Amino acid sequence: MSKKEYHAYPWWSPRFWHGMPLEVWLPLVVEHRVRASLSRWGLMATITTAAGFNSLAEPLSRARFRRQLQEATPADPLFIIGHWRSGTTLMHEMLMLDERYFCPTTYQCFAPGHFLLTEGLITSALSWIMPDKRPMDNVAAGWHRPQEDEFALANMGAPSPYRRMAFPVTSPAAPEALDVSRLPPDELDRWRDCLRTFLRMLAVRDPRQPVLKSPPHTARMGVLAEMFPAAKFLHVVRDPFVVYPSTLRLWQSLHHVQALQVDPGNTLEEYVFAAFDEMYAAFERDRHQIAAERLHEIRYEDLVADPVGRMHEAYDRLGLGNFDRVRDRFEDQARSMKGYKTNTYRHDPRLVAEIERRWRPFIDRYGYRVPEAEKTAATVGPAPASA
């Protein structure tokens, strides 16, 4: 990450951790023995202050909306799944062009415990502190932009691999709570309860069908299908020789921006490999439990080449509604995508060989090719929105 990117997120800017109440935040800090880097103590102070506010605001919000929360009956979600940097955010933002669906916003995911009470006031008062762009790419950021529900779950105290972002140096080397079917029963129940509670709160705000986008859900399809019998899954895949370096940069950026420890990054390469391995082992296990009409897969490269055609196909396969109602909006989006400049990386022959060795089943299933040795440069970044 460049200095310009880092300073776009000074210590007082909003971080994901600012949404945790004290009963979630303090145990996380104690778990890592308060081992924050000296340069991050200002951030530690702002998060602890925000946690105190959250602990006061959450019971007030529950009391104010008790009846609505009891009566809320959220529709089963449409899940957008796929590895980080595969194009899931592009798909998320395209589906938001259809007024029949809604998605959780950044504020709702960063303050899941009290957004029903505070969203209007705080997003207006603090709009100036939200950076215009995300730190890892050129994608627009903002309180009201679509966001991953994984941030909400982690803020609510659910087991999540995103807890690693706070303390990357003292966190386990292997991904945590990615494949939730491997959790102890009490932790799995807590995870389910957090997701159902968040969906009820969203339903109070908006009765439409929710679209949830979270890369970790790729490893949870079986659990999600059991929880939500009418849920459908839209799986986005991308060239793994592009996904790997882009994901590595993503985690480096998130650790620079979100972490309370200065991470030397010496464990990130293996972490990215291990997370992919676990994610797609679980996905391949679970896909056989999912009826064909509930799961549709799209290659990112095909989506970028023909956004309207690929979205039309997804609508037909999953029964998402009359496509003609949104065709014009998708065509406008497709025109806006033309000429977008992506980030450029160089292939590392060592990593190319390791990707080929470890991810060969994925490469073969989705028809990708190993980069030729003489091609040392690769264009990998996002389309207008991809993560």
Task: Describe the structure in your own words.
With 387 residues, the chain is α/β, with parallel strands linked by helices. The chain has a single domain (3-379), classed as Rossmann fold. It has 17 helices and 7 strands. The strands form 2 sheets. A 5-stranded parallel β-sheet has the order 2-3-1-4-5, with helices on both faces. It has a two-stranded antiparallel sheet with strand order 6-7. Helix 2 (22-31) runs antiparallel to helix 3 (41-64). The longest helix is centred in the first third of the chain and has 24 residues, at 41-64. The protein is globular, with a radius of gyration of 20 Å. The two termini are 16 Å apart. Mean pLDDT is 89; it is low at 1-8 and 374-387.
Report the β-strand fraction as a percent range: 5-15%
Give a short account of the largest sheet: 5 strands, parallel
CATH top level label: Alpha Beta
End-to-end distance, in Å?
16 Å
Shape: globular
Number of domains: 1
Please identify the structural class as seen in this structure. Answer: alpha/beta
Strand order of the largest sheet: 2-3-1-4-5
According to CATH, the fold-level topology is Rossmann fold
* pLDDT < 50 runs, ≥5 residues: 1-8, 374-387
**Helical fraction:** 40-55%
- Fourth-tier CATH superfamily name: P-loop containing nucleotide triphosphate hydrolases
Keywords:
387 residues; alpha/beta; globular; two-stranded antiparallel sheet
Structure, briefly:
The protein has 387 residues and is α/β, with parallel strands linked by helices.
Present the secondary structure layout.
Layout: H1 3-7, H2 22-31, H3 41-64, H4 66-71, E1 78-81, H5 88-95, E2 101-102, H6 106-110, H7 115-125, H8 149-155, H9 185-205, E3 209-213, H10 221-227, E4 232-237, H11 240-258, H12 268-287, E5 295-299, H13 300-305, H14 307-318, H15 327-337, E6 344-346, H16 349-358, H17 360-365, E7 377-379
Parallel strand pairs: 1-3, 1-4, 2-3, 4-5
Antiparallel strand pairs: 6-7
Helix pairs in contact: 2-3, 3-7, 11-12, 14-15
